[in-house]
Amino acid sequence: MPDQNYNFFQGVKVIIMLGCLEIGGAEQQAFLLARFLKEKCGAYVEIWGVAHGGKLTSKCDKFGIPWRILGNPLSGTFVSTVVKLLGISWSFRRANADIVLPYTLVPNVISGITWRLGGAKLCVWNQRDEGTEGHREPFERWAVRLTPMFFANSRAGADYVIGSLCVDSQKVTVVHNGIALEKPQETRSVCRQQLGISDSSVCVAMIANLSDKKDHVTLINAWSKVLKELLPAAGRLKLLLAGRYDNASRNIIELVGVLKISEYVTFLGPVDDIAGLLQAVDIGVYSSISEGLPNGVIECMAAGKAIVASDIPGIREAVGDGYTLLSKPRDSDEMASHLITLINNPILRKDIGLRNMERALALFDTVTMCNKITEKLNGYLMYS
Known about the structure:
Elements: E1 13-18, H1 25-39, E2 44-49, H2 56-62, E3 67-69, H3 78-94, E4 99-102, H4 105-114, E5 122-127, H5 139-146, E6 149-152, H6 155-163, E7 172-174, H7 188-195, E8 202-207, H8 216-229, E9 237-242, H9 249-258, E10 265-269, H10 274-280, E11 283-286, H11 295-302, E12 306-310, H12 313-319, E13 326-327, H13 332-343, H14 346-363, H15 366-383
Parallel strand pairs: 1-2, 1-4, 2-3, 4-5, 5-6, 6-7, 8-9, 8-11, 9-10, 11-12, 12-13
Helix pairs in contact: 1-15, 4-5, 7-10, 8-9, 8-13, 11-14
């Protein structure tokens, strides 16, 4: 039953387009918005993937959100791309799309080019990083010119859109990610038993897919230095890496073997119960060289964890100015030093964790995110 405060979306058809229907940061945010539009606003929502399906499809099925796979029109010749883009325009028209909401570069480009011909009233470019996804020229420039509204989940992303894509700043809105951790499925003790971790161990976790867009290598090197520094106490330390095995996974696993630290590192793969995992760990960590506003950081914050992370704009925006546990990108020595500080000081961990939780609850709330998006969409539709 839609909330009467959002009845201006009742019956509106919204297509959310993603690069694939696996579960990553952008996909999680898109799904939260899809549920909000469907359940709170009474909109008709579909989720379309460009490349392939994945675990997100089962979540769509669970909540009654239709989904489909399109295929990537940008992967062929110029002529074949144009033909396929025309086909997507026809798909929008057949779906009676009113609003098209893409996430990440390829969906942004596809949607930006096709939405008007497809009969939609609005398309919004959604910038999820600092401009590191590459380019799809000449189609990217074409899409940017045709798109009337831009969202970015970080100030760094907004700066990229304004500075590098030459978009009028009045068209760009920063909408921070919203985090809604579900209730843990098990207690901390049970979660630790399932993970094979003793109650006395200090457990560190990074939540991010094992892709070359992150920097697990620096973290692994830092963890090796932590273990050497804290011998003989290393036996009570464990690093958990939670996330899908993507294009960097082989190198990361091989590095753990080369450094002979396999007994201190556990690869969990995709984790459904993120809240339960975070309940079981003591410290969060996030190593990366470029981010928008990473879910893996603000999820740790929302769970009340102190976090060690790379000092890049998107992460700095998440934790706030003055946060002292950020290390220079690719600096494993500094990351190791910060981890050792937290491992040796449980009181400091608790104090920083409480402050992180307060910040996450105040700034990165799901309802706030969805309200800001729906208000911008409604304002455009009312006055355009």
